[in-house]
Amino acid sequence: MHPLQDVQKPGVEGTKTIQVRVNGQIYKREVPIRMLLVDFLREELGLTGTHVGCSVEGRCGACTIVLNGNNVKSCLLLAVQADGADILTVEGLGEPDNLHPIQEGFWEKHGLQCGYCTPGMMMSVYNLLKVNPHPSVAEIREALVGNICRCTGYEHIIEAVQYAADRIAAMPKEERDKLFSY
Amino acid sequence: MTTVSETKWVGRAIRRREDPRLLAGKGKYIGDITLPGTTYVHLVRSTHAHARIRNIDTTKAENYPGVVAVVTGEEVAAAMKPMLVPSIIPRLGGELQIPTVYPLAIDKVLWVGDPIVAIIAENKYIAEDAAQLVEIEYEPLPVLEDPEEALKSDSPKIHEDWKSNVLWHGELGDGDVEKAFREADYILSERFYGHRTGCAPLETRGAVASYDDFTGLTLYINSQRPHILRMALSQILNIPHDKVRVIAPKDVGGAFGTKAPIYREDLLICYLAMKLKRPVKWIENRMESLMTIGQERDQIHYLELAVRKDGKILGLRDRIIADVGDGRTGVYLGFVMPWLGAAYLTNAFDIPNVHIDLSCVVTNKPCLSPSRAFGEFPARFAMDYALHLVARELNLDPRDVFEKNIIKKFPYVTATGITHDSGDYVGAFKTLLEALDYDRVKQEQKEARKNGRLIGVGFAMGAEMSGIGSQVFVAMENQPGYGSATVKIDTHGMVQVLEGDSPQGQGHETTIAQAVADELGVNIDDIYISYGDTFATPFASGTLGNRGASYTVSAAVLACRKLKTKIQKIAAYLLGIESDSEEFIFANREVIWKKDNSKRVSLDDIADVAIMAPTKLPPGMEAGLEATAYFEANIASMLSIGVHGAVVEVNPKTGDYKILRYVVVDDCGVPINPMLVRGQVHGGVVMGIGNTRYEKYIYDEAGQPLCTTLMEYHMPSAADVPDIEVIEYNVPTPYTPLGTKGKGEGVPGPVPATLASAITDAIDRPGFKLLNLPLTPESIWRALNEDK
Amino acid sequence: MYPAPISEYFAPSTLEECLDLLDQYGNQAKILAGGQSLIPLLKLRMADAPIIIDINRVIELQEFGEKFLESGNRVLRIGALTRHKTLASHPLVLSKYPIISDAAKYIGDVQIRNRGTIGGSLVHADPAADLPVPILVLDSTLRLVSKDGERTFSADEFFLGLMMTVIEPNEILAHIDIPSPQPGTGAAYYKYSAVFGDFAIISIGARITLQDGICQSSRIYLGGVNPRPQRAVETEEFLNGKTITSEILQKATDVMVEEVIVESDMRASDTFRKVLLKQYGFDVLSKAVQRAKEEQI
């Protein structure tokens, strides 16, 4: 498409108050209607672990979060759409001293270099392992189509996912369920 | 080849120390930095590829609520020197025409995306609203998109004050080329084209600048070269050096060369902060990014090889035409990449007689910006694929042609003046063939062909630079090549390392710590690495060109060794021992006398004495425990080899192909952390596959870019690429203290020739050749149907 | 890249409220379903939406399942808000309507399939999108509703051209009805794209009804070839009445390649699109025939 097309002239800015649960904490904020969910998370809530890489169409997936149980791209939602939603971002996955097995997998297997795609990538892995605890390599690759990594060549990411899957499979069911409560 | 047995940390595949923060979403990237009172910039960019600006009307934008300022080119230009100051102009001989450039276009635009107006607003949404209200009148000028057209003498000139559209022209080479061609049994002569593609990182560029009259200018920017940028800012903006502080954030979301130049936006953001006395933030959006940076390659090679009938290359002639775009991006001017591509053209091969004629031509496209496999991507394609074509023409096994020509004696200086320091290129090459099971694949190929399946095997290699020493770099870019590091032991016995480079995912916090931990006998967790802040770190030319493991790590090691001399003197004094300074072992945070193990002092005690209680130091000794070292290898340049091989299956009806195996045999000297080296190789190969097959910056005849989102510029996803097998074949270099060399920068280079040769082998039809990148199914289908 | 100011946002929970809003705001309003196309258009400021009507809470648009119409005909009813994820993985689709999952499985990526809706995709009418082709192939009907009443269109009538449909500003697509197939019917879909999950360079959808090995009827549409999915009428005519053999399918593919009008763009030339149609046309037809034998459309 033409990069710098003639565009509509701006009109009046509306706002709306929304309430969202993010990583277990409830936030109530008045936001401009046009504000993208990713900007709400990053700039209103200060959760800067969710990144922006493609600006437009969501192809890069760096802004992936889990919204009401599904991994979605937070740059393709308005914040107002998340009113009443339950959201998981990378900040809710695990703390540096208490990492989620997915994070451990990425650490152990060197599944990240610059780390920019990693939060979004792990959100997609979360969604994958929640529904498919023992994915094949092909299934892992397909599940990550929506998350571009420019550094790793994906090889170590796949090993990271396998590592996490094995770790999780070895846990008692209750613990496993706790890991996937979103 | 080598094993590291005497060291504890170097050579171990330990987990990275930077990862916990990144995994927890606590990384600090440029987009995460916002200062109180920040304003936001949006740039209005040219919609024309070549036009005179007749009028700019910013009235409506200025009146839009929330707009702080609207700034145009003349105002910015009046506040600074033309950006291409002498210190950032490369000196590579030849004939150079230097363009004039300021941050914003003034009366003319040279490509779609050329910045014209800056809108500064209270938030980023408003800045973009106001940008829609700027009205610009253009008078279109003829557009030059084809560098061969632009070379013609009757072509319109893009830079009107130039005598031609050639930014740089020069010749490289040595030996008696005429004689080589006279004596040749066979001369290969082909035109190879490597398209415009590159290394767009996932994080775009970004900058946050602030200014006050007392501390001066502070620029946070995701630059690979904060010190070089600081120097240039001071000169261009005419501000004292002590009033310019550049800080690269702790975390940078990939760069691959694209964040090495001095861009126009960098200067613009600084100017705006100085004008407004408020912090100014600019985060490049992906559309701007795809229109502006990360575009590289784009070379045409008219390559001729003089070949003996046994496959030995006697001589090489090449006429290279590089499309450098507008040529106005600082430090590299778009031409250093093709120049290096030419200088490295002969790759890992012993070709004594070489003549290369290189023309770097300006067109109405964005300036080339460095991208991993810096200038070499099309050159490797031309050179290595040409060797396969030679083998096919002479009915030789390409394996033998490669072996015959691979450099065998080190150090080796190529006809273009590049020094290969050490290694075992033939051994690495043979290891690849073994790993591929070359003979068996050739056998399977025959079987498969009977069943109508076309399998092919191909290979190529890349001798990639591993940093460049000052003896080359000073001439090349007016900058030192040394690595620099400061090592300090603090009051708590913790070790702080400060490096002047600034990484973007390479893992310096881990690898430098591994080297330092061994030197000082401390635990890796006792070490912290600081980088990015030009007010705190020693001068260095940046994280690029595989400098880290070769130069920067070596500097850290040398700094440790300087410090160890002092520590041993203190230890001897505290222990009351008469000792030479080299009689101590550093282990377990202790300094232990070799002659009597019971005589030992903890590093903490030494730190305490040296810093907190200097009265206890040997008489006359200076307090403190820190040392800075500058490492310069005792050789012009170090290179490290990677040999790539692939097995592919091709569908001859559609030209589509699948990579069945991709194998890399890799040498990085001594690997500091083998897991990180593998990661570099995987990533480099996949970037190479992306550049070879999926990614292309396409322009229409009017110079309009057609790939302005990631829906058109196709970076491969996990489902688009194969598994990558990596085999280590490491030969320590004698030119660094630990035998280490850098790895990662050049990895994409051998990919196109590897795939092209494998596809050609699969098709196996006389006359079939793939001379143009990218290797899309359609391009292969065309090649198949053109030669019928 | 951010949307222009939006002055009002409504998230109605019933169809009636939704239609009232559309009636009131019509041209000024944009319907937001999955948003996977609309939000990018807003960011590019190529769509103007001072008012957003978010339909994600409208229950009536979420129907999904087999249903008997008043006429007594059985249909698969797909509410406009049905997500691609459901179409890609619902057991009913996988077992009886696999042409739909063939297409839905490779729309974009997981995240897009979790959000994107069939209604959004059809109304957006991108010729290289995945869902229009199977919807056309299955002779579906699309129900549009507004304050003024209802209008029903065949899929073929619904699509007008490049990103253009018959839908009026005060209307909303409520659902898609896919008629139950004649006995002996099978259908299949294939997309060829530059990278995994990308828009189609070409896509092919075919439906064939067999009786005693003879083709009773057929429907073939090609996507990605020109501004609107194109029906391969001559190919259908060639197949109808013929005893289906591999050779006939091969010849039908040739007819298809011959009749289709293809355009060039940056993804592929017209010539190469024909090469791909020739390569994959036969596979899709064969798959449809195979499924006809298993009665899967």
From TrEMBL, chain A:
Keywords for the protein's UniProt record, in alphabetical order: 2Fe-2S, Iron, Iron-sulfur, Metal-binding, Oxidoreductase
Domain 2Fe-2S ferredoxin-type: 16-93
Keyword hit for Transport: no
Keyword Hydrolase: no
Entries under SUPFAM superfamilies matching the protein: 2Fe-2S ferredoxin-like, CO dehydrogenase ISP C-domain like
Cross-referenced Pfam families: Fer2 (PF00111), Fer2_2 (PF01799)
GO molecular function terms attached to this record: 2 iron, 2 sulfur cluster binding; metal ion binding; oxidoreductase activity
Pathway: Alkaloid degradation; nicotine degradation
Superkingdom of source: Bacteria
Annotated protein name in UniProt: Carbon-monoxide dehydrogenase small subunit
From TrEMBL, chain B:
Annotated GO MF terms: iron ion binding; oxidoreductase activity
Occurrences of domain Aldehyde oxidase/xanthine dehydrogenase a/b hammerhead (ranges): 24-142
Annotated keywords: Molybdenum, Oxidoreductase
Pfam families cross-referenced by the UniProt entry: Ald_Xan_dh_C (PF01315), MoCoBD_1 (PF02738), MoCoBD_2 (PF20256)
Domain of life: Bacteria
Name recorded for this polypeptide: Carbon-monoxide dehydrogenase large subunit
Organism for this UniProt entry: Thermoflavimicrobium dichotomicum
From TrEMBL, chain C:
GO molecular function: FAD binding; oxidoreductase activity
InterPro entries, per database record: CO_DH_flav_C (IPR005107), CO_DH_flav_C_dom_sf (IPR036683), Diverse_Substr_Oxidored (IPR051312), FAD-bd_PCMH (IPR016166), FAD-bd_PCMH-like_sf (IPR036318), FAD-bd_PCMH_sub1 (IPR016167), FAD-bd_PCMH_sub2 (IPR016169), Mopterin_DH_FAD-bd (IPR002346)
PROSITE patterns recorded: FAD_PCMH
Record keywords, A-Z: FAD, Flavoprotein, Oxidoreductase
FAD-binding PCMH-type domain residues: 2-183
Pfam families hit by this protein: CO_deh_flav_C (PF03450), FAD_binding_5 (PF00941)
Highest taxon above the source species: Bacteria
This protein's name: Carbon-monoxide dehydrogenase medium subunit/2-furoyl-CoA dehydrogenase FAD binding subunit
